[in-house]
Structures are given as C-alpha cells and as structure tokens.
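Why do we care about 3D structure at all? Because function follows from shape, and shape follows, mostly, from sequence. That is the central idea of this module. The next example makes it concrete: a single protein chain, its amino acid sequence, and then its structure expressed as tokens.
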Amino acid sequence: MKHVLSIAFLVIACCCTTAFGEELVDGVEVNETGKITVENVSMALLHMDGDWGPSRQMDAWSIKAADGYPKSTKGKWEFKGDFSLKQGGKAVIEEQLVIKSKRKLQLSMKFTSEQPVSTKVLAYVVNLPVDEYAGKTVLIGDEEVTLPQECKGQQVKQAADVKSISIPLEKKKLNLNGKFHVYIQDERQYNGNCFTVRLSFNPSSGEIKKSDFSMTLEFDK
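And the structure:
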C-alpha cells in the first residue's frame, strides 16, 4: 500500500496540502479522517452552525473514529466516527468509497445526530488552490466558469440542479457526477488561499438530524 505526504461570512482557512493517506485508485488518496486528495485538490465535509461557526472533516481535532474505522476491504474504504460541532455537541459521519474501475469511485456520506443541529451550511467542499486555479476554467454542467485572477467578492458562481462538474488537473480532468446545488466562493475575500466549491447535502440547512450526499469521481485521460 502506498503512503504519501500527503464560508459564508467567516474566514475559513483552506487546507490545500495533503496528509498521510491511502491510495485507492491512481492519483486518489484518502486520509484517516476521510479527506480525499487528488493532486493538490482536497475534498471534505463542512458544517456551519446557526452562527456560521465552521466544523470541517479535514480538521483532525473534529474527528474521532469509531472502533475499527477506518477500514479497507477489496474495492471499498469505509469511515465512521464522531464529528465535533463548533456550537457544541456531536454528530456522526459515515463515509464509503467504492472502487468502480481504475478511474472511477463512488462516494456516499451520511450525517446524523440524535438531536436537531442548527445548520446554515452542510456541504461537501472541493478546495481549489488559488495559485493553481486562478484564471482556469471549470465546467459546471454545460457552463464554463473561469475562476478570477483577482478577487472580486465572495461569490463566483451559484447553480442548482447541476449533474456534472469538470475540474482540470495537471494531465487529466476530474469529473464529479451527481445531483448538485453548487456554490463557488473565493476565499481570498476572507484572507484564504482557495476557491471552495460547495456541493450541498440533502438537506443542507435548517434543523438537521439526518442528511446525506453522494457522487461519483471519474477521470478523463
């Protein structure tokens, strides 16, 4: 097994570096908290409470794995654990990655809490480093969206009922497929160093006890 070194109205520092991880398919790594990394693109769950307080899956302090997790079997990687919330209390997150082919993964996530959790945002977030992605174009559905060279405000793009997103990598493209409500934010507005692409859970706001998210990750050569 290969090992590698791997929002809203508050400043959320983007995590654009990798941590020690397990490679699932060529170029896709997952660390012990379930954060996915593809080259310098990182992905993980984000929760923002009723006061916009952030809790992020990629922060090791916020995650405590359940006994026996994460676990990996042939063709599948799974995580389950407690997720500490900024406002206090905990939720449980479950994550499953299923290898469909050498270039395709299926991601499924669940967020559950015994008590309703006040939520402004519950999303799966793709972090794109500004140094690499400013001026580049991503495909949101059929629409080309160029990420700005200079920060022009917080919102770059918002779109509902999006079925596909295509992100350029160094030598290939990462295609995300599902049913998305997309919000792209320029974190330079808050002294960050990434563009964040938020893909909403269902439900994604309100008083939440159960919510889920799924998509496929696939590469074009």
